[in-house]
Amino acid sequence: MRALLLINPRAGSESPTTEELAQAARNRGIDVHVLGEDDDPVELARAADAEILAAAGGDGTVAGVAAVAVERDLPFVVVPFGTRNHFARDVGLDRDDPLAALEAFDGEERHVDVGRAGERRFLNNVSLGIYAALVHRREHHRRRRQALAGVRALWLSLLRKRGVWATVDGEPVRARVLLAANNGYELSLFSIGVRERLDEGRLYLYRARGVLPRTWEEEPGKRFTLDSPTGRVEAAVDGEPVELATPLELAVEPGALRVLLPRRQD
Length: 266
Hints:
The chain is an alpha+beta fold. The protein has seven helices and 18 strands. It has helices at residues 18-26, 41-47, 59-72, 86-90, 98-101, 130-143, 147-158; strands spanning 3-7, 31-34, 52-57, 75-80, 108-117, 120-122, 125-129, 166-168, 171-173, 177-182, 187-188, 191-192, 203-208, 217-221, 223-227, 232-237, 240-245, 248-261.
């Protein structure tokens, strides 16, 4: 089967190098495209003459290509090549060994759930509230090379009291942090842990009221409707800053992604 691997060289991995990963994939007969500054991995995946789609990068790159794999009903391979690689970890890959993930091209297929925020699919989570605001401000100031000053200013502003800024299924949201997750997470103070399952077929909505959340309110479900007075919300979808129109349906698509994984060793 013809496979295409899209590699994001700016995702954060240092070992192996982009060239080493690309050559290892080509040695397996896989077509490789190293993303340039102006390349859109989503559009490249949509136009690809391939029977397997794959992405090497962080969670943002991986999620975009995986969404196309769902659209096209194609198998998908994830190669951990970014900083955190949450999805790769939760499907059982070694985040420190991108080369081993290439075994998945001859591996076993597994169906996992995909989340959806409006028309945008996600693999891990959608964060709203102060987390999302920090991601947006960090990205804005990173481009202007003023990241530390910008994030500090935002953080100080967030310490002020804030009232109702959104509703979920018509109920006011007073929590400072709102997280919609594709399956259930282990959560702690400013830490998103692992997911035991990716095939439960549930979306989990987590709320934390404090600036430093020590406890999370958990609500599982199939779908939720988020609304806001302004008609839009800042969000971080799999770590990528986006602005989403409201009302916004948050939902789960059970078993929508066909993930290829290395065969288990007996």
